[in-house]
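Hmm, how's this folded?
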Amino acid sequence: MNTRKLIPLLFSVLTSFCFTTVSFAQPIAQENVLQNFDKLIADHKGQVIYLDFWASWCGPCRKSFPWMNEIQAQYKQQGLTIISVNVDNNKALADEFLAEVPADFTVFYDPKGNVARKFKLKGMPSSYIIDRSGEVVSTHVGFSESKKQKYQQELEALLQSTE
């Protein structure tokens, strides 16, 4: 085989492995969004879930993603799962955001805001901490350095709990 053809092929294959960190939930019909979201949450019952709602236009969301990547890596073995819900009505906007600010956790796409309405969001970003039994135990609006410490303390307390 000609090396001129082989090099681009190898580059393409290798870079596809390097840049596939985001796992979007499978594209689904809008009437099934809530059912699929509920299944996603149920699939993680027994774990502590940090559920984060975000949008591409949200400034604090850009700051929260590196922290969520960090705590996902740090506490995954203790049972922490990060699930984020993007509420952009245009997936291309979410893709652009994620190209700049990667996510090492599941991203669920909610373009019609069905899941967001279920949680009655009051601002962006909004986050919910769900305990191992599947109950929402804490609700937050916004993200900052001081809030980050509080959120992390709440998560650590739940992760130490065996309930």
In short: The two ends are 59 Å apart (CA to CA). The first helix runs from residue 3 to 18.
